[in-house]
Amino acid sequence: MGQVTTDCVIHSIVWRNDQVSETDIEFASISDRLADPEQVLWVGLQNPSTDDLAGLGDELGINAAAIEDALNHVERSKAIRYPKYSFITVYAAKWSGTSTAMMPADSPLAAGEAPTALPGDLTLTKLSAFVFPRGMVCVWYDPDFSFDEIVERWNEDGFISQYGSPMLVHGMLDYVIDGYFQVTQDLDDVVEDLEDEVLEQVAGSRSLQRRIYRLRSCLVRLRRAVVPMREVVASIMRHRRETDADQALDPWFDDLYDHSLRAADWADSLRDLVTTIFETNMSLQDTQLNVVMRRLAAWAAIIAVPTAITGWFGQNLPYFGYNEPYGLWLSVGSIVVLSVGLYIAFKRRDWL
């Protein structure tokens, strides 16, 4: 196997007897390491080129379709079983950067807008893995993503040398699903704040609607990663039970499947709740508009009384009290009596 391009960063760990024995192995030795039954290998390729993966595929006998899936940045989460290996694609969710909604109120992009509680922008990092019996080769392109926490989990869980690559797969998926729970919890907190704000009508409707749209957009992106995870874990469990006589890891993957179901259900419930919040906000705005229109109509009716009376008494035609002093008092009294009467009637009906 040849050398990788300068843009590709290689991370690697070799376990023997559940202990890390080597790191930073040569790229050309990956195939030999995977064939060694006495060790377990993990290789991480960060930002590999097409030629890098093509060379890896030729050396390890990886199908061209799997290589293409690893290179495609919009691939759906899935798990596919090939004769000598498995291919897995999932998306890790995390907060990164500073969202425009987090900017101070005096920012040009957020003028007059209350800051939201979102920690930042939701980032989905695609993780692809070629899983062999004694090792796993991972591919990702996000420069800010690190496998350090996943490696810590592998070392803490142990049993890597005993069970091989299934423990590596479990540790990676467990980290990804835990990330879904953390992001979903953050979104849940934001939803609770929005519920209170909608009911109290603290923010202006336009600002609140923009924030609800941002939250709903964030949830839609999260669901694209969370919901297919159920199928990924279920597919892995099904293939293991069909091909692996050792069922010791079944409880581990059963628990992982349960977590994936809970994360998907939580994301779905939040999406429905955000939709309800949006509809409630629109209903409250419509109600407020109706109240305003009702008050305007009431005041228009009251103002119409003096307008009509002064218009009648202002005509250059004979009428009751024409050219008489009491005609003035009659018009003024009529205006006062009718206006006050209408005001009291509207007030009793809560129109004013």
The chain-level mean pLDDT equals: 82
Distance between the termini: 83 Å
Counting DSSP E segments of at least 2 residues, the number of strands comes to: 7
Query: What spatial order of strands do you see in the largest sheet?
Result: 2-1-3-7-6-5-4
Which word captures the global form?
A: rod-shaped
How much helix is in the residues?
Answer: 55-70%
- C-alpha-based Rg, rounded: 34 Å
Low-confidence stretches: 100-115
**Classification by helices and strands:** alpha+beta
Task: Give the strand content.
Answer: 15-25%
Order of SSEs: EEHEHHEEEEHHHHHH
Number of helices: 9
Largest sheet: 7 strands, mixed
List descriptors.
9 helices, alpha+beta, 57% helix, rod-shaped
Please describe what this structure looks like.
By secondary structure, the chain is α+β, with helices and mostly antiparallel strands. The chain contains nine helices and seven strands. A seven-stranded mixed β-sheet has the order 2-1-3-7-6-5-4, sandwiched between helices. Strand 4 (78-81) and strand 5 form a beta hairpin. Helix 4 (148-157) crosses helix 6 (165-200) and helix 8 runs antiparallel to helix 9 (325-348). It is rod-shaped. The N and C termini lie far apart (83 Å).
TL;DR of this structure?
The chain is an alpha+beta fold. The chain contains nine helices and seven strands, in the order ββαβααββββαααααα. The N and C termini lie far apart (83 Å).
Task: List the topology elements.
Elements: E1 9-16, E2 19-23, H1 30-34, E3 40-46, H2 50-60, H3 64-71, E4 78-81, E5 86-96, E6 121-132, E7 135-140, H4 148-157, H5 160-163, H6 165-200, H7 205-243, H8 250-313, H9 325-348
Parallel strand pairs: 3-7
Antiparallel strand pairs: 1-2, 1-3, 4-5, 5-6, 6-7
